[in-house]
Design a protein that fits this description.
By secondary structure, the chain is an alpha/beta fold. The protein is built from 16 helices and 16 strands. The strands form four sheets. The protein has a seven-stranded mixed sheet with strand order 4-12-11-10-7-5-6, sandwiched between helices. It has a four-stranded mixed sheet with strand order 1-2-3-15. Strands 13-14-16 form a three-stranded antiparallel sheet.
C-alpha cells in the first residue's frame, strides 16, 4: 500500500493524491445536500446557488427523484439499451411530450459532450457534409468532436492535428454565418443560445430566427446546445420556445437527471428518418437508473409548474441586484443568470463562499458571477445573496 495514501485521511489530500487534476477546487469537501443547501465534511452549511455546475435543477436530493432511484435500484439496476425497458420508454415519452412538437425522437447518452458528439455525427450523416460552424466563445465539451466546436486555443492546442474541421464565427452576427455557409459544405451550425461559460451572453431574438432561415436556405442543420439552458431552467422547456425557433437537434444534459449523469439529443423527423440500427450506440446511455431519475425529475417539473418558478426567481434576483452598487448588469433568463461586477469576480466568489457561506460560479468573463440556483430555491435566497454581495463589495 502506498504509505502516502495510507496516511492521507483528510478527503482533500486523499483526492488530490489519487485523481488527475481537473478544476481548481475550493478547500472544502461536500458530504450532504438538501434543496439549495449543502454541508461540508467539517460541518459548514452553505447556500448553493451554483448547483454543482448547473446540475441540481430540483435542489440536492429531491425526494421524488431519490425515491424513484431507490425503487429502480431494487428492481433492475442496469441493462444496456440492447433490450427494451419500460422505464426508458416512459422517460422517452415524457421527454418528447415536454419538448417542442417538432422534436419527435431522442438519443440517450451519458453527458452533454456525448450529446453534442451525437448531434454533430448525425448532422454529418443527414447532410453528407463534413464541416461545422460554431461560435466564438462557445463551450460544447472536451471530447474530440465537441472540443473542435469549443472556442479557445488553450483547449485546441494539444489536439489541433486531429480535430474535425470547424469554422468559428462571431456570436450574434448572422451575416458571418450566411457567408460561412455559402460554400455548401457545412453540415451544421451549433451554438449555445445563452453562452454560459462566456459570462451569460445572449443575442437578440431576431438573430436566432435569422439563423433558422439561413440554415434552411443552405440545407444546413441548426443545433442548439441546451445542456445548460434546457429542461425548464430558463422558464420554458427549451430556450428556443422563448423566441419561437425550433432547431433540428437540441442537446440536453446537466439538469436532465436532477443529479444523475445523463445526456440526450432530441431530433426532428428529418434527422430521425435517416438513422438505421447500428448507426448510433452506447452501453450506459438510457440505463434504467438514469431513466428513473429523468422520469421523476420531468414529472416534478410539470406537476409543480417549476418552469414558472424559474421566472419568479429571476424576478426576485433582478429586483435586488439591478442598480445595486458594484453591479454593472444582470444577464440571462430564469435560473441561469450572470451578474457583471465593476471588479474581478473570482475574489468576490471566494469571499461569498468563505465569509458568507454562499456558493456561486465564475466564468471566462473576468467580472461576471454565474448564478445557477435550483428551481426550488426559496425566494428569500435572492435577498440573502444580494445582502452578502453588498457586504463583500463594500469590504473590498
Amino acid at each position: 500500500m502506498n504509505s502516502e495514501l495510507g496516511t492521507a485521511l483528510d478527503p482533500l489530500a486523499l483526492e488530490d493524491a489519487t485523481t488527475l487534476p481537473t478544476y481548481a477546487k475550493p478547500p472544502l469537501a461536500l458530504v450532504r445536500g438538501e434543496n439549495a443547501t449543502v454541508w461540508t465534511h467539517d460541518g459548514r452549511e452553505l447556500l448553493d446557488l451554483y448547483g454543482g455546475h448547473c446540475v441540481a435543477l430540483l435542489g440536492h436530493c429531491p425526494p421524488r427523484v431519490v425515491e424513484a432511484i431507490r425503487h429502480q435500484a431494487g428492481e433492475l439496476l442496469f441493462y444496456s439499451n440492447a433490450v427494451y425497458s419500460p422505464i426508458r420508454a416512459e422517460a422517452s415519452k415524457r421527454l418528447v411530450d415536454m419538448a417542442p412538437p417538432a422534436l419527435t425522437h431522442v438519443f440517450w447518452c451519458n453527458s452533454g459532450t456525448e450529446a453534442n458528439e451525437a448531434a454533430l455525427k448525425l448532422a454529418r450523416t443527414v447532410t453528407g457534409r463534413s464541416r461545422i460552424v460554431a461560435m466564438t466563445e462557445a463551450f460544447h465539451g472536451r471530447t474530440l468532436g465537441a472540443l473542435a466546436t469549443t472556442w479557445g486555443d488553450a483547449y485546441h492546442e494539444p489536439y489541433r492535428a486531429i480535430l474535425p474541421e470547424t469554422t468559428f464565427v462571431p456570436f450574434g452576427w448572422e451575416g458571418a454565418v450566411d457567408e460561412a455557409l455559402a460554400s455548401g459544405d457545412v453540415a451544421a451550425v451549433i451554438l449555445e443560445p445563452i453562452q454560459s461559460m462566456a459570462g451569460i451572453t445572449e443575442a437578440p431574438p431576431a438573430y436566432y430566427r435569422a439563423l433558422r432561415e439561413i440554415c434552411d436556405r443552405h440545407g444546413t442543420l441548426l443545433v442548439f446546445d441546451e445542456v445548460q439552458t434546457g429542461v425548464g431552467r430558463t422558464g420554458t422547456f427549451t430556450y428556443g420556445e422563448h423566441i419561437d425557433v425550433t432547431p433540428d437537434i437540441v442537446t440536453l444534459a446537466k439538469s436532465l437527471g436532477a443529479g444523475v449523469p445523463v445526456g440526450a439529443a432530441l431530433v426532428n423527423s428529418r434527422v430521425a428518418d435517416t438513422v438505421k440500427s447500428g448507426d448510433q450506440g452506447t452501453t450506459f446511455g438510457g440505463g434504467m437508473l438514469a431513466m428513473a431519475a429523468v422520469h421523476a425529475a420531468l414529472g416534478q417539473i410539470a406537476d409543480e409548474n417549476l418552469m414558472d418558478r424559474a421566472l419568479e426567481l429571476e424576478a426576485a434576483f433582478r429586483k435586488r441586484l439591478e442598480g445595486a452598487s458594484g453591479v454593472v448588469e444582470v444577464r440571462g433568463r430564469g435560473c441561469l443568470l450572470g451578474v457583471e461586477l465593476d471588479r474581478a469576480a473570482k475574489p468576490v466568489a471566494a469571499a461569498l463562499r468563505d465569509e458568507h457561506s454562499i456558493m456561486v460560479g465564475t466564468s471566462k468573463h473576468p467580472h461576471t458571477l454565474r448564478l445557477m440556483p435550483p428551481l426550488t430555491t426559496p425566494l428569500a435566497a435572492a435577498a440573502a445573496f444580494a445582502d452578502a454581495l453588498d457586504a463583500v463589495l463594500n469590504e473590498s
